[in-house]
Amino acid sequence: MAKKSLVIVESPAKAKTIGKYLGNGYEVKACMGHLRDLPKSKIGVDIEHDFEPDYKPIKGKEEIISDLKRSAKSSEYVYLATDPDREGEAISWHLKELLNLDDIKARRVTFNEITKKVVAESIQEPRDIDQDLVDAQQARRILDRIVGYQLSPLLWKKIRRGLSAGRVQSVAMRMVAEREEEINAFVPEEYWTLDVHLTNEDKTGGFVAHFYGQDGKKKELTSEEEVNTVLTAVEGKPFWVEKVKRVDKQRSPSPPFTTSTMQQEASRKLNMTPRRTMAIAQQLYEGIDITGEGTVGLITYMRTDSLRISDEALDAAKKFIHERYGAAYYPEQTRHFKTKSGAQDAHEAIRPSDITLTPERIRQDLTPEQYRLYRLIWSRFIACQMANAVYDSVSVEVAADGYNFRANYSAMKFAGYTAVYEEGKDEEKEEKTSPLPSLQEGQTLVKDTTEKEQHFTQPPSRYTDATLIRAMEEQGIGRPSTYAPTVSTILDREYVIKDGKHLRITPLGEVVTGLMKDKFPDIVDTGFTANMEKNLDSVEEGNKNWKALLHDFYTPFAQSLAQAEKDLEGVRIKVPDEVSEEICPECGKNLVVKSGRFGRFLACPGYPDCSFTMPLVIVMPGRCPKCGGRLMKRTGTSKKTNKQYTYYCCEHVNSRNEEPKCDFMTWDVPVKDDCPVCGHTMFKKPGKGFKKPYCINEACANFVPEDQRGYKKKTAALEGGASAADETAQAAVEEKKPVAKKAAAARKTAAKKTTAKKSAATKAAAKKTTAKKAAAPKTAAKKTTKKADK
């Protein structure tokens, strides 16, 4: 009997999917990630002996290692099928070393997508382990270990126990800190806008024109005096149409997702953290059970910086677009996107592995998070291969006494790719415009009214998850596999906190960043870190020795560390308290933010004389509808389920002061808009889909009863402007849902019956066996008696 071959992957889900594709000749097992690593109890790198790493089996993985050794021993070949990146290559190398495999028996295979075709093809084309990839990963791991294990103790001694420093996280933290410094140092500048309401001479066809400049040149209005000068000059003077320009403007679709852009868009549109996005993407890549299809890997590998798409996928997209949307929605030439310089380009862009598995078709087989992310990936890929959106754009230039005013309007002429998908924006600043009347050059207009408004320039916005990842990518800091862990680490360590969606540096983060900038400028320098990433790429390409890279880094680092220890001898750096606006009701001091086992909270700085504490509250927009106080966002924990929940209340709820007190509490979210009828704060239903505000004042004519609040969300297929084909497909899905539910119920019933039959058969067999065993002594006794009689 021929020996089976062993295939080793990282996770049970991936093992299950690949096992179904390969069949009986292969045994597929999961190693559950890394099995060998540097020990946690010490640095694990012999710096004096050429940075020799001391790898040890990870504690708790002994049973997995033993099981894999037994399976490898009895297998003809061992296929190491870990992820197709540096870390995956390193895991395969560690497996080869742990299992004592020779070069002939150990075979390396990779899957860009986990589909039956790709798995079958890849298993027939194994290769050797790429030692350059392994060395690049070893260099990164040892660099991070040296920085972490030699810098962190310094932070413990000089600032606070439990702190950590990291090669990439320290740079990301500095970026957030410097953005905060920019905001604090920002000096707002005054500017004014001037709008003129114009009509035809017969008082029809009104529109608004915005001040542009003078004598055809753009001019900014920086004071009210300048605005009044313009108004005085044009008062009583004729306004006339100087130029009318009508053109078709085209907008091209965004390229398919890379790791970075997927994390950014999931943050913007789905409110997912980078860590959660990557976890869900991993599930989609490794395989999901799809009704009628079996276990299918739904997307290609999700750690990539490439925009390359295979010819097979391009052909499939072309066919799908023609069939579903029509030939007009496909461009004249197939779209190819250029990958940015410096990218590793090891894999394709992130795309669906089978374009015909539409989100609406497989929705019933996915969790809500899987469905939302898959829909995002699927839609982005389809859109990137569709025709441009076309807009009918009209621009009008109006003149009066040498001053120029402009009005613009744009209307969609052809939906193109926007029928499927539009990219989200970090800051929605799109100005609403109204349609323009039919105007002719030289036509005289009549000034109706004018509007002048004072503005001030705004400081740069704080980073969000999305904008920080984009900035890191633009500056070459980190690689696709490191973006999510970096953002998660600085949040987990409370160097940075989230204020809504925005990232804000904490006093602890400011102190640590200040120390790093002062004593270790290279570690937190964006240029130095970006150059280090390029050096690691050179190791991967075989152009640089990994140990030489470590020597080049360590010599100046060790000198900086020794100098810092000397300079800071006897110094203890105090982290200032983060003072809030909340007043302690017992002693009158401003409460400060503290951290504990269960997160951040407010406490009195007068401890131990005053021990008052309270949950950390977030001030919301609007005013309490009962007493006019501030509205707060608070969290509580359910005693039954131990889960956290969010509610909104007046600042005077549970107040310990005698007066005033208020009992206003609600689950609904207060918004910044006031009711146009009664002037009370408006609210909206919690949740991403609910955006329409409503008035809760029962005495107001605009009052919305509780059972009528919120609105029905658009179906996924129709979101973003859908064609008739989308509506038909969605209707088909809706028709299939009851059938699918019945089929699922039938499968469960059949499974129960089968289990019951097996159970009954097992019991019957057990009874027969017991009866036979009981009868055996009696039969033996009878035979003995007969022999004695004879």
- In spatial order, strands of the major sheet run 9-10-16-15-12-17
Percent helix: 25-40%
Report the radius of gyration as a whole number of Å: 34 Å
Low-confidence stretches: 711-744, 776-790
What count of helical segments does DSSP give?
18
Number of strands: 29
Shape: globular
| Assembly context of the chains | single chain
Main β-sheet, in a few words? 6 strands, antiparallel, barrel
Task: Assess the beta-strand content as a share of residues.
Answer: 15-25%
Distance linking N and C termini: 51 Å
**Secondary-structure content class:** alpha+beta
Q: Mean pLDDT, rounded to whole units?
A: 86
Task: Characterize the structure shown.
- The protein is of the alpha+beta class.
- 37% of the residues lie in helices and 21% in strands.
- The protein is built from 18 helices and 29 strands.
- The strands form nine sheets. Strands 9-10-16-15-12-17 form a six-stranded antiparallel beta barrel.
- Strand 1 (5-9), helix 1 (12-22) and strand 2 (26-30) form a beta-alpha-beta unit.
- The chain starts with a strand and ends with a helix.
Summed up:
The chain is α+β, with helices and mostly antiparallel strands. Helices cover 37% and strands 21% of the residues. Strand 10 (207-214) and strand 11 form a beta hairpin.
How would the blueprint of this fold be written?
Blueprint: E1 5-9, H1 12-22, E2 26-30, E3 36-37, E4 45-46, E5 52-53, E6 56-57, H2 62-73, E7 78-80, H3 86-98, E8 106-108, H4 116-123, H5 131-158, H6 169-185, E9 190-199, E10 207-214, E11 217-218, H7 224-234, E12 239-251, H8 259-270, H9 274-286, E13 288-290, E14 294-296, H10 311-324, H11 359-362, H12 368-384, E15 389-400, E16 403-414, E17 444-456, H13 465-474, H14 483-492, E18 496-499, E19 502-505, H15 507-519, H16 526-540, H17 546-567, E20 578-583, E21 590-596, E22 599-603, E23 613-615, E24 618-623, E25 630-637, E26 644-650, E27 665-666, E28 669-674, E29 681-684, H18 724-789
Parallel strand pairs: 1-2, 1-7, 7-8
Antiparallel strand pairs: 3-6, 4-5, 9-10, 9-17, 10-11, 10-16, 12-15, 12-17, 13-14, 15-16, 18-19, 20-21, 21-22, 22-23, 24-25, 25-26, 26-27, 28-29
